[in-house]
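Final report, Chapter 2: Outcomes

The project's central promise was a pipeline that accepts a single protein chain and returns its three-dimensional structure in a standardized token representation, suitable for archiving and comparison. That pipeline is now operational. To close this chapter, we reproduce one record exactly as it appears in the project archive, with the input sequence first and the structure output second.
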Amino acid sequence: MWTTMQVRRGPSARAAGTAAGQRQLNGRQTSGRGYRNLSEVEFGMARTNRVDIPMRDGTRLRADVFLPTTGSPQTAVSPDGGVRLDPTVRVAPALVSFSCYARQVQDLGAPFGFLEAGASDYFVPRGYAHVIVNSRGTGGSEGTFGLMDTVEVADTADVVEWVAAQPWCDGNVGGMGISYFAVAQLAAAVQRPPHLKAIFPFATLDDLYDAVWHRGVLNSGFFSAWLSAIGIMAGVSDEFWQSAGLDLIRRALNTSGVHARMEHVNGQVAVSAMKTLLRSHYAEEPFGRLWQEAAVEHPTHDDWWDERNLRPRLGNIDIPVYLGCQWDNVPMHLPSSFPVWEALAHNPNVRLTLIDKDALIWPWETMHEEALAWNDQWLKGRDTGIMDGPPIRYVIPGTDHWRTADRWPPPESRHVAYSLRTDGTLAPDEDVDGVGKRSYLHLARESGRPRNANPPGLPDHLSWQTEPARQPLDVVGDIELELDATITALDTDWIVLLDDLAPEGRAVNVTAGWLRAQLRTVDEESSRIGRPVLPCREPLTVPVGRRVRYRIPLTPNACRLRVGHRLRLMITSGDERQPAARVLGFTHSSVGQSSLNTVYATSRLLLPVLPAEGRIGQTQREPASSEGSTCGNHEEGPATTAAS
């Protein structure tokens, strides 16, 4: 039986983009570079649903295929995915988007955290095939979902080679999509499939342990909701996703007025939207089993996680790689950007871009012009300008232009030690006797404390503040807390937040760090100042009541502290009942032990500060108003292009 393609007819069909008459893309589209020779809209788009792709073991994955066309093709697709071409279908390079998310609704247009494959109606009219594939056990694909296990990693390379062999592909294949789609791109690249020419893994992960266990602190608020949603979506039929009712919703959400109103939907949607799915149930096998294995049976970085860790294999990648993230993606994708960058140091064709807050919105269609310039360069052989200038481009939130660097962290950045003083001030390390200390009380949810007891005499967190800034202070790079502390439990969670505190008291998170006390062992050989490496493999007993030194890395970040603003450091041991201790709404499950935790004044926060003069050699323009927070949050408009 043959299935006729669904067609958007000819080059006059409406394409996505930023020009007049196009479906307007939301969000930032470039890193401030000037481009040349970019592909223009020339084609219509033909869509084929439910194409089966055979894997090496015979399992068939389900895909939707979008092809560029110069007219109204009568192309048909066989049950095995083979295509009988007619002259209207353009043979083109292909972009592969692979994930466990429902492929059928990637063009739905909803502000939903799983719509991350990229806009087909942007790339296809500009001369690319777009293949959106579901991993095993999801979206109609055969097999069992394995959460990026060895089998799924192998599947990503098989898909690349199958796509390259199709008559509608010219043999050049790239990757597209953020989050899980980005992980899949790295997974394919480490295997070096011959036809994979370049990838664009924006907002990626290379080690899944780092996402589920924040250095031993279970990222339960996200992971439990995420895996449940994957399981529920996996049980939804093609007929539902591609029903006439959803098609009407798709058309409405992609109209200009409705779509524009979603432009500022931010990262918290990824958590809140998932919770709307949790009224349904998912299959215990494999989703309940995977949750138990990941969240209960394997709390340390053991062999189970090693199977899902791409970091040791990143040295295999020799094709061009475009990395990037937004500064406020602290609990999920930003932490991986830097170890991936370092692991690819051998590769001259790697670029890294760090963009302002709320830049990754849903459905994902930011940085598409940047991706077009990247793919035109490496899949079509055009000189687009994407490789011009230094390899790193970034914005310091609160400033209005791009900066550049040849390496990370920027060499101009210097660590300044700030002491956690007993009077609650966070001040440069000068004349501190180190004998002071402060304590807080962490009560577990089931602490056994009498219900009618008076409130505890100690707080449930501690904080320190700098003096108000007398001149703008730029912080860029690796951030570390050297924490000297005692606990009265056998274990505890350290949750550390760094905030920008405005004069009126409004706090905006800059970054955060997490560490389970028993997993404090540091790989000194791989570490540097500001970036301790914690393997999280072997628990080490915490001596009760004895002072211990912890090196806690906070997610690297950038921030401009405006005049009159303060930096605030907060330390606590639980965020489920403390909204102020959460980042992007993420919550963690504590170790479940109540503890009196004491922090000593010998503790130091190591901040990477840029020199006041020069500031990486570019002219600074301090915004006229000092109202509002800017560290990690910049809402005054896009950065302007700066010369590289």
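Archive annotation: The two ends are 56 Å apart (CA to CA).
This record, like all others produced under the grant, will remain available to the consortium after the project formally closes.
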